[in-house]
Amino acid sequence: MGPWRCLLLLPLLAPALRAQQQQFMEYVERRLTLLEERISQWHDQSSRYSTELRDFKNQVLGMLEAAEKEREAMRAEAESAAVRVDRLEREVDYLETQNPAPPCVEVDETLMDKQVATAKQRKNEKYTKLTDCSDTIASVRAMKILKRFGSASGLWTKDAAGSSEKIYVFDGTANDTVYVFPRMREFTLFSATRKAARIKLPYPWVGTGHLVYDGHLYYIRQQGLSFQVIKFNLANKTVVDSSVFPAEEQTPVFGLSPSTYIEVSADEEGLWAIYATKEDEKNMCLAKLDPASLDIEQMWDTPCPRENAEGAFVVCGALHVVYNTRLPSRARVQCVFDVSGTLAPEDASLVYFPKRYGSHASLKYSPRERQIYAWDDGYQIIYRMEMKKKLEV
What we know:
Elements: H1 3-96, H2 109-121, E1 135-148, E2 154-157, E3 167-171, E4 177-181, H3 184-189, E5 197-200, E6 211-213, E7 216-223, E8 226-233, E9 238-244, E10 262-267, E11 270-275, E12 283-289, E13 296-305, E14 309-315, E15 318-323, E16 332-338, E17 351-352, E18 360-366, E19 371-376, E20 379-389
Antiparallel strand pairs: 1-20, 2-3, 3-4, 4-5, 6-7, 7-8, 8-9, 10-11, 11-12, 12-13, 14-15, 15-16, 16-17, 18-19, 19-20
C-alpha cells in the first residue's frame, strides 16, 4: 500500500481512535472512582477501629483502677484484722499474767497541795548539780533525714537512759497506740507499720511532750482542765504511777504547738518538765522531776518567752528553747536558761537548725547519743550536735 493510500485512510480511522481514547479515559475514571471509594471505606473502618480500641483501653483502665481499689481495701482490712488479733493477744497475755492492778490515777488533793507547797518553797533556788556535766551546744554538726512517717505532728525517740535500740513512735497529738520498732533499720527501711509492735496505752495522750526513760514511758494525759503525768512500764504494760501536775491554769507551753501543755525532757541530770501557766503567761517555767515518784523537786521561772517557740529541750541542766515564725523559716535556739548559773544567757551560742520542711512538732534530746530526734511536718530527722564546755563558749 502506497503512502497516498494511508493518507486516504486517516480520515476514516480518526473517529475510531477518538472513540477508543474516550473509552479508555472513562475506564480510568471508573477505576479511580472505585479506588477513592475503597480508600474512603478504609478510612471509615480505621476511624471506627481506633474509636473501639480507645474505648476498650479506657474500659480496661477503669477495671484496673477498680481492681487496685479493691486490693487496697483488702489490704486495709487485713491490716485491721492483724491489729485486732494483736490486741486480742495482748489482752489474753495480760489476763494470764499476774501483774498488779494499775494504780488509781485520782490524786489525793492534800498530797498534791503539799507537793505544790514544797516545790514553791524551793522555787528559783540555786540548783545543786547531780553530775559533773558542763557541756553546752555549740552548733548543729550534721542533719540526717530518715523518712516520712505518719501525720504532720508527732514524736519519735529512743530510751533516753537505757541502752535499748528500740524506736518509739507517737503519731499525732491525741492517740493511744505507740509503735515500737526493734531497731533503726526496721524503722528506716519499711514504710508500713507491719514491722512494728503496738503498745495500747490505758489512757490516750495529748500533745507531743512525752518521753521514754529507763524502761518507762512518761506521757501526758488531759483530764478535764488538769494534766497528769503517767508513768507506764514498757516491760509489763502497766501503769506504775501517775501524778496530777501541780500547776494551776496551764496554757500551751509553745506558741507554735498549741496542743502541748507539758514537755517532759531528759538530760544528763535526769528528768525535767517544761510548762507554762496563766500566772506568767508570757514566759516558760521549768521543773525538776523525780523519775521514781514523779514528785517535783524544784521549780524555776525562766526568761524564755512562749511566743514563736516551737520546742525545747534540756542539756546539762540548761533549758534550750527553739524559736521559729508562724510562716516556718529557719529554726534557732534563741533562749538558754541554766539552772546552775554556770552559763550566762549572753555567753550561749546562737544555734541554727538547717532549713527543712515546716516547723518542728517535737525535739527529743538523747544524752546518751548527744543528738536530737526531731519531727518536722511528718519527716523524721536526726540532728547531731557539736558540744563545747560552758566556760569555753
